[in-house]
């Protein structure tokens, strides 16, 4: 199921190393998020919060994908 698809200014969360933001032109990146919210700042400055027990966040060539269990925390 797709929960969000569109342009965004930023994706923010926290992994085992600490807080991070993925912005435009960010280096390719992959991480695991456990029991931390994921925030998306849309191109219309709307902040959307997603909660999952575990998620994988991948950024490749300015495309961010989040893979998560369908259940929320």
Question: Can you offer a commentary on this structure?
Answer:
Helix content is 0%, strand content 58%. It is mostly beta strands and 73 residues long. The strands form two sheets. The chain has a four-stranded antiparallel beta sheet, with no helix packed on it. The model has no long low-confidence stretch (mean pLDDT 93).
Brief digest:
The protein has no helices and 7 strands. The chain has about 70 residues and is an all-beta fold.
Tell me the layout of helices and strands:
Blueprint: E1 8-15, E2 18-23, E3 29-34, E4 38-42, E5 47-50, E6 54-60, E7 63-68
Antiparallel strand pairs: 1-2, 1-4, 3-6, 4-5, 6-7
Radius of gyration: 11 Å
What is the H/E order? Answer: EEEEEEE
What coarse outline follows from CA principal-axis ratios? globular
The fraction of residues assigned to DSSP E strands is: over 45%
What ranges have pLDDT less than 50 throughout 5 or more consecutive residues? none
Strand order of the largest sheet: 2-1-4-5
Task: Report the sheet with the most strands, covering strand number, pairing sense and barrel closure.
Answer: 4 strands, antiparallel
Mean pLDDT: 93
Terminal CA distance reads 17 Å
Please give the count of helices: 0
Helix content: under 10%
Coarse structural class = mainly beta
| Number of strand elements | 7
């Amino acid at each position: 199921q797709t929960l969000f698809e569109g342009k965004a200014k930023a994706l923010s969360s926290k992994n085992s190393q600490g807080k991070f933001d993925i912005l435009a032109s960010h280096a390719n990146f992959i991480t695991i998020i456990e029991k931390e919210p994921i925030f998306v700042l849309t191109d219309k400055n709307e902040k959307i919060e997603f909660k999952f027990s575990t998620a994988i966040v991948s950024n490749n060539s300015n495309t961010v994908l989040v893979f998560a269990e369908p259940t929320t925390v």
